[in-house]
Amino acid sequence: MFCSPSIRRSPAAIWPLLIGAIALASVLLAFAANSPGPNPRADYWSEVRQGVAGYTSVESRGHDVLIHNGGQNWRATRNGLVAGLGPWVLAVVLAALIGFYLIAGKDRLEESRSGIMLERFSRGERILHWSTATLFVLLALTGLSTLFGRAVLIPVFGQTGFAGYMQWGLWVHNVLGPIFLVGVLAEIVLWAKDNIPKRIDLDWFLKMGGMVGKGPRPHAEKENAGAKAWFWFMALAGIAVGVTGVILDFPIWGQARGTMQVSHLIHASVAILFVAASLGHIYMGTIGAEGTFEGMWRGRVDAVWAKQHQDLWYEEKMKERSPSE
Questions:
Q1: In 77-209, alpha helices (H)
Q2: What range does the domain containing 105 cover?
Q3: How far, rounded to the nearest angstrom, does the alpha carbon of residue 7 sit from its chain's CA centroid?
Q4: pTM over 0.90
Q5: Inside any domain, residue 294
């Protein structure tokens, strides 16, 4: 049989190739046998991140766990979802109010003022309202500064100025929070009876209180459907931010870290919605409807305003008036 010279090999020429192959295989086997395998430190930290408790002389709750994964989840949600969507929520509500004002304009009195003044809120009610409202504004400013200050205020005031402001702002926020909760609870006790939802409130919503379109205005009691909706939202949101704020304010009660993290996310999320809804309340109480601000500032409103906005309450008040008034 014919073989090419380039392929044909003598038995003596094969031995060096065979010895070289055996040597290479031996080196590879030795390297595999001496390889470290999985990093034992990686396995250790993987176990640590499971949240298994260990031993510590510190008696505070949660200190026996070295790494809390919940902290990473909380930080990602706080800095991502809450801080990311919060400004958009406020901006959309503010833009909607501006658009509504430009389209519908101010809800002015349809008749000339009568000069007959009806008492709407007592002095004690007004003091409670404005005290709680002042606390709300201070808490909103300091709370939003805490959430968005790094992105908004540091470029304006610098790090030193922002640090000084927040040192004061955090103290104000933590001290005034529990007082605000007391104010909200007092308002619930005082005004809940005037804000019970009724069937006539549905018609008010359908007609937007008569501010849009033509036709007779919907009936309303002392508080119309819009005011009732704001009241109950204020009550629920105020309790939510107040209770979670107290939990964050006093960690000495032994709250777990998970409880604190969930409380903070609820606190921040509801607070943003609270501030957004308050913009609508402020709008209606100031430039939205003529004569409305007088009721809470002076305690009395003109009879024409009462007849236009709260006709059922107007009829009750006029019946109570003596003929000499």
A1: 83-104, 123-152, 154-191, 200-206
A2: 71-320
A3: 81
A4: no
A5: yes
